[in-house]
Amino acid sequence: MSNFDEFTARKAARKSKKSNTVRALETTRSTQHNFTNVKTAASKTKAKGAKSIASYNKSPLSFAVPEAEPAECYGALREVVKEHLHNVDYVLNNDLLRICGFYYGQKNESCEFLTQVFTNTNEDTGEPQTLVDIRRLFGNSYEAYNYFKTIREVLMANNPEFEINLPNDEEQNEDLFADSEDDGATEAPNAKYLRFEYDPPMVNNLMISLKKNSLQEKLYAMALLSFNSEEPTNRGIILEEGAKEGLSKIISTIFQENKRGMLLRNTAVLLNNLIDDENFEIADNLVSTMLTTMITWCPTDEPSGNSVYEVNQSRQLVNYLALSLNKLYERGVVTPEDVDGMLQDLNDASVLKDYLMSDDFGFDDDSCAVNLQSLGETASELYELEC
């Protein structure tokens, strides 16, 4: 056999080893095209509750719950998302049995997801069954798979009476995308972070990416900066390079001009990390921009926006900005009276105050509406935003 023939044979063998799970993840990259059919089918169906998905292909990230009624299954999923997942933002649509949201991975990689409960026909028995259908609408494919695994595992643990049917190849590939967070973690606690001191120009390039129009570039750059800024040495380099590029103004501009929740949330994470350092310069309009962003993205009981698929509420974003404001209080940059005065000039400020004093957020007195020092402490305790 010639070298060329041997090379061709090896290449074909490698391709054949690709698992069904990997193919499933690659299939999700075409979800945005298929999703148009989903929205068209949904818009033609006015009946409330679970719908049949016979009109389009189900997602490869789906599983059947044949022993549960659709409403019962949706209620269990809603509890999982609200009570057990602290790294998600979500909007509930109880009429359509649908949950839209953002899932944030360990290193701030993220994805936008749609979770919906349908009924379809069991291929083996021909009987109707309840199906949980999960789709990646935007963002990282691997985080979409991690969300799928997490929500399925918690659902199974909390509801042992549910008989959850996995895809045929799922059990064989359960560990394919297992995160290696434990590998070497005890020997090198900071091994998970990049070492910016070895390549400071990389930080400058990431700053430049934040100024570009490409959303993908901004998401990638902000995920790297927000995660790696947790490490003190990296944070110092980011501040040094950021001073040259006007990082505080870049952050303020992102809050003002962007409507993608995943980007804004990671921007708030970066800001919260940088404010720990007194060398971080505060742009003139940064505080008022933070308050405006908190009001715009403040969680409410009812879904908002022009589309039932739109997610424009973010608990994580509001919480991180609240922690940042708390740190600005401690530094003496602003006072509660300053913030209260700014809120008086903003529309819908009462929505934010109501949320901060709601039972969901854990406040019980009026002073917490303006005294964000208490807000920061409570947010850190309830939502585990500080490790």
Could you describe the 3D structure shown?
The structure is a single chain. With 387 residues, the chain is of the alpha+beta class. The chain folds into three domains: 148 residues, Kinase associated domain 1, KA1 (TATA-Binding Protein), CATH 3.30.310.80; 67 residues, no CATH class; 103 residues, no CATH class. Helices cover 49% and strands 11% of the residues. A five-stranded antiparallel β-sheet has the order 1-5-4-3-2, sandwiched between helices. The relative contact order is 0.09. The C terminus is likely disordered.
TL;DR of this structure?
This protein has helices at 3-16, 20-27, 31-43, 70-84, 141-158, 200-210, 215-228, 232-245, 247-257, 261-274, 286-296, 315-331, 336-344, 349-356, 372-383, and strands at 61-64, 88-93, 98-104, 110-121, 128-139.
Features:
387 residues, alpha+beta, TATA-Binding Protein, 3 domains, 5-stranded antiparallel β-sheet, globular
What is the tally of helical segments?
15
For the record, the count of structural domains works out to 3
In which order are the strands of the major sheet placed?
1-5-4-3-2
Q: Let me know the largest β-sheet.
A: 5 strands, antiparallel
**Percent range for helical residues?**
40-55%
Q: Any idea what the CATH architecture of the largest domain is?
A: 2-Layer Sandwich
Q: Please tell me how large the radius of gyration is.
A: 23 Å
Overall body shape: globular
User: What are the segments in which pLDDT stays under 50 over at least 5 consecutive residues?
Assistant: 14-48, 169-191, 362-370, 382-387
Number of strands: 5
What is the H-and-E element order? HHHEHEEEEHHHHHHHHHHH
CATH names the topology of the largest domain as TATA-Binding Protein
- What percentage of amino acids are in beta strands? 5-15%
CATH evolutionary superfamily of the largest domain:
Kinase associated domain 1, KA1
Average of the residue pLDDT scores: 75
Which structural class fits the helix and strand makeup? alpha+beta
Alpha-carbon distance between the termini? 58 Å
What top-tier CATH class of the largest domain fits best?
Answer: Alpha Beta
